Fold each of these.
Amino acid sequence: MNLFPPAEGAPPGFRYEEDFISREEEQQLIAHIRELPLQPFQFGAYEGKRRVVSFGSRYDYTRHAVKDALPPPDWTLSIIARVEQFGGPGSAPIRQVLCTEYEEGVGIGWHRDKAHYGDVFGLSLASECTFRFRRAAGKGWQRFHLDVEPRSLYMMSDESRHVWEHSIPPVASIRFSMTFRTLAAGN
Ligand SMILES: O=C(O)CCC(=O)C(=O)O
């Protein structure tokens, strides 16, 4: 599925492009991510099942603030530039690259990304997932979902980023993602 023009029901500000990278690039990125010191995602006293490494900046759940992280490694730089180009002139520079591994059966619960960050981009690697959106509507939820393919890129800005929540149900086979975030104004 290619969301140009936007698919009916897609949250405003959501963009999606398949085959953003080649299969060869995908294999190279997966090999790099597998070599990283991935650690279970920590949020305060809790630990998530997905394993992550942050570059550029990281969100500190104890201090509720964005902190510096190691600079993005060389192998991320050309992809960062392409993601920034995808974001277009209205989007700010990427200030965080979060590499995530979801083992089979691991997903991510409903959330909106921290307000300290601005636009959010996601590059999917190794396997597909269902990407779900919901927003409160009356006593229930307005919902949207799509199958996000490996090698695709999505972008969340505007309402899709700030009003709608998103989640990924447990994946059927191992998936990696690279999440690219700009900083919100004033951060
Ligand atoms: O893996 C993904 O594409 C989503 C990641 C995400 O929602 C997050 O890290 O907040």
Amino acid sequence: MPATAQPAACHADAARHLRAAVVSHEQVAEATWRIRLDCPSIAAAAVPGQFAMLRIPDRHDPLLARPLAVYDTFAADGVPRFVDFIYLVHGRFTKALVGVRPGDSLTLWGPLGNGFRPAAANHLLIVAGGIGQTALLALAREGLGQARYGTRDRSAARVGRVTFCWGARHAGMFAAVEDFRAAGCDVHLATLDGSAGTRGTVIDLLDERFASAEPGVGTAVACCGPEPMMAAVSRWAAARSLHCDVSLETPMACGVGICFTCVARIRDAGGEWDYRRTCVEGPVFNARDVVW
Ligand SMILES: Cc1cc2nc3c(=O)[nH]c(=O)nc-3n(C[C@H](O)[C@H](O)[C@H](O)COP(=O)(O)OP(=O)(O)OC[C@H]3O[C@@H](n4cnc5c(N)ncnc54)[C@H](O)[C@@H]3O)c2cc1C
Ligand code: FES
């Protein structure tokens, strides 16, 4: 069974604005930071591939919240409590976020979106470009039996092994790669300048990695990164008849289905496409349904 997207959850609770204290905030790679929030309700409910909308309280620039993927969740004394996000310093929000200190608080709402279904494949191939790894760690940890996420209703399907292929501009951009190794993933890197791993794109890495032995029918692919990279991974998987899920990173404003800022063109069963809201009907879609 592939790691397909699960149905959209009800967002009534998830739309409630929360205030969460910053527990820790540290730089983990070039222009990349990891922030831990004390937020038990999101820690208890989030499943791999879901996200939250975040704002810095009492700041009106930027006015709109920004989506960040739930990277991982942690318990204290056996009770879900902390939520980690990893972000790339990019524009107005993330530049301001760098200035937030432990003890400050953030406004957020979530968990949002459909997230990945529990992966149940012999081999899960997760593929990230740039900061796209943030949507994939929890999926790998869950599949390898390292962690459980969400409510008890979520089945804990297992995968035999996880291969992680990650492409970035240069070696300094890889943030917390040790998390994937600690989870038990077989990690392979590619950089455009050759400073780590294969020189080239993540597609060059996939071609190299599977040159002598194709990944095989028991493989499911899950992917997140810049849109052209996801389109290329989608074609790579389709050429091998592999199921591929992608987590789209369309810009968002509300995160809960109201504003239609986040639409993507998604095909239905009849092959016709229509606009779908990435925040509630995604961000995870079957790659073959996305009109790139
Ligand atoms: C579901 C989801 C999960 C995400 N998870 C993460 C994460 O874990 N870590 C992380 O670093 N980022 C993540 N992002 C991306 C992040 O939300 C955006 O990069 C956000 O715009 C950053 O806010 P900013 O104010 O710093 O930059 P902005 O000022 O919003 O953006 C600066 C520039 O980038 C452009 N831009 C913004 N968003 C996008 C986009 N999605 N695609 C293409 N161009 C864009 C804008 O047009 C603008 O020119 C996620 C996005 C989505 C939808
Ligand atoms: S971000 Fe508002 S509808 Fe999706």
